[in-house]
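USER:
Make up one protein:

ASSISTANT:
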Amino acid sequence: MKSYEHVLVALDLTDEAPEVLDRARQVAGNHSARLSVLTVIRPLTYAYTGLEFAGLAQSMVNFESEAQASAKERLAELCKDAGIASEDQHIIFGIPASEIKEQADAMNADLIVVGSHGRHGLGLLLGSTANGVLHGANQDVLTVRIENE
C-alpha cells in the first residue's frame, strides 16, 4: 500500500468543511503525513468578466480584501480546532480547481483531498471543483462525499 507524505486538503469553508478536514486528518494521521490546508477565493473579476470595471475597481478591491480576511478567520478557526499550524494554512485567489492542482504541485503534496456534493445530471456535466481537480491532477485525489440534506 502506498504511503502518503504530504496531504493537501482543499476547503471551501462551507458548513461541510469540518467533515472534509476530519477525513483529511484521518488519512494524514494514518500515514504520518504532513497536512496542509488550502482555500481558494474566486476573484470578482472571474465572476463578472466582460463588464466595465473602471468605476467598480476600488469596491472590488475592498470586497476581495474583506473576503480574504473573513476566509483567513474561518480557516484559522477550523485549523485551530484541528491542531494545524498557521504555516500549513494557505489562502489564495484564483480558479479553485486550477489553483488546487498548481498548489499541490508546488507543495510536493502526494494526495489531494476535496469535498464532493455528488451532483448528478447537469451539475455533473458542467463540472465541479472536485471534478476539475480529479482530471489533470498529478497526485492521487480523495473526494469526500458530502451528503446533501
Q: What stands out?
A: Confidence is low (pLDDT under 50) at residues 121-127. Residues 57-82 form the longest helix (26 residues). The chain has one domain: 6-145. The radius of gyration is 16 Å.
